[in-house]
């Protein structure tokens, strides 16, 4: 027979093997057992104590009988025996002694899995079976192939893990574990479920879960296996929550299989649905990730603990608040731990193993409150919060508190406050609280006793008589005053505010003036008299200073008869009017005296017939404003004021009134008006001798108040006009600036002399200016892209000689006379050109007159010569060196020979001396100057425009006269050589001229020009361009 306790420790199982010979249907087996304290050798069935129990055994056909005994105590000793009944013959077995704790057969280990250590070493881990009262020992067996009968046995000590070789991951291995009592008693458990290393090692993390506090740094290790092949750590990337890739700078290679990532300065984890942790994924660089991940729990342990000792110095209350997310973590808890030192606090407080847990209660504001009572005032209490979780325990930074340093005193008592008369000082006094020393500072707050009035704060320190004096501005108001205190050195807390104290309003002096009043006269037909009701408005506090105890009504009638009446309450008073003249004065009175400045009103029956108001109109503006306008009739009495009365005729309500200065003819009444109802407005002129006849109206005037200078219109209309003018000015300035920016380099043709008298309003004008000549075709602009034509003028020929002259064009700036008319045709970017030089008549050798022309570009050309210190010497070397007259003409100009083209050609035979001709390159037009009469006889001398063409491609140039439109042909190939220019110039100058006349890319410019056709279209394309306006 074999007996053992099952792993759940609640059932004893005994198996009995029976010979097949005895297996019969009438075979019955029973197990008897009873508890005993004696050893087996000293026990007998008669000495057994307690009840003997019987467990029936079940026999099966496989020669075994099973007996089940429930609910045995593990550490007790039981005496057992068997009774076998075969037919009618009983058989008894010998006595057996059993202690259940020594025959336990545990459950097999559970949850087999692989883990990785910090150094990258693998280990096989499992969970212990149900809790047993003793440690266990384990056996691990490993098989190379599934289903293989050969197992390698490994004896393991008390730990529930076993380090294995990392190379086992490269092939399929099965692992099983079993356990038993570490002392060797009892039975081995069954083998656990086989665990396949190749399947369990796809992704391994160390640690698989981490609990840490915010602001800390943590590291994770990973082994990644992709399709039965270990991925090299260089190919591993880390992702946080599968949403954020962790930078590669945080990776570390631990070994040829292990990758490590370190996260710095962590923030507290925010719950995401049912996830209360962050996930880290170890993935392949191809972004292929395994579903397994590591869990990161980050808890904010930055918890501030504040303590406060009550004013009676009997208890200390500490409170603290935690992040609500901390309590959402499953299996977590918070508690306050403390340790009390004998005296004061250490410089660097730290948790102590001798700490105790203090019970705290959750408050309505989600904070916790703990109370220490009794307390030791000078002892140091070190406090911290402990967070417990199944992954570990976290602690907040400890804080040390001395109860004597965190006292919140009781508020001051017996607060008194009063205002001093005529001075404006608020005197406050109080009684210091108990259980405090004399070194206290106080804060006093005071405010006018009304709603929504901000508090004024005043702080006083170390007052021996517990009082303070505060200057205030308002004297006729009631103040509310409160006081609080704290230690003078700043330790502890401010006390609560004391109970409020209120000041009493006292009169400062007699009222400054009496009330402003009016009378309402009613007829009493029964008594045949008039009754007068006086109404007045209560005095403001700045006039009453500070209160009014009663009003005095003083009456004065003819015959020096006077009397007074007193009104203690209310602002109205009535009396009969029987005399022709009755003067009334209303005075205000307080505890100091009677008002000195008062208003008088005379009631006169004679003056009541004076009609001084000609017309009265009322114009509604809206439901809160009505404008009353009136005109006056000529009168001999001087009006001292007006009084306007109004009331709603549809309702029985009191008449309202207002006093108006005498110099006004309209008044704005602000009140609540129902415009669909009927109102009556009355205007009374008030004279020194009485009140005149009223002018009344009971309807609103139609058409608004446009004809009466509506106040709203007079305010809005100037704003609209000024805004419109300002906007128009901004538009004009913007238009001029844009025009200046866009057309800065474009000349204005109206400022040119050729445009004088031309009507640019007619469309035909532009068609005439820009229409091509009937015989002309399209052409390219005159100017070379690399050469900018400067201001060009034609010098006058000398009148002393009648010999043949030459036409010369020199690069100059316009002279003052020319600039007056043609300045608009030149552009600002020409100001960087060479200094202007007027063309002069030159007498060459052999009596030949020369005139010269230059075309100067902005960019310097290389070749020729540079102008050094002496421009004359340079010019003499470069051009007409043997002709002193020509060279002298250029000696004084600021000329850069390397930047221009020099042209010389002879004038027409027999031609009169030429006058000055000005050509402005920016306009593209050539015209005679106004101060010159050289071209008045245009029929005799037609103006021709020179076309510049390359010398090497054509021989003929074309001139087109302005008046006769005839074509002037000449041989351009001999133009310079025949005149002797190229004959007398150095080789480099000659080459420069040749290169300058070569065709280059053209830049079009406004206005455009036409080309005259010489010999049809083909001839035109080969001939030079002619400038025509």
From TrEMBL:
GO MF annotation list: cytokine receptor activity
Region called Disordered, residue ranges: 806-844
Domain of life: Eukaryota
GO annotation, biological process: leptin-mediated signaling pathway; system development
Bilayer topology term: Single-pass type I membrane protein
Comp. bias (Low complexity): 824-843
SUPFAM superfamilies in the record: Fibronectin type III
Keyword Membrane: yes
Subunit structure, as described in the record: Present as a mixture of monomers and dimers. The phosphorylated receptor binds a number of SH2 domain-containing proteins such as JAK2, STAT3, PTPN11, and SOCS3. Interaction with SOCS3 inhibits JAK/STAT signaling and MAPK cascade.
Protein name stated in the entry: Leptin receptor
Source organism of this protein record: Pipra filicauda (Wire-tailed manakin)
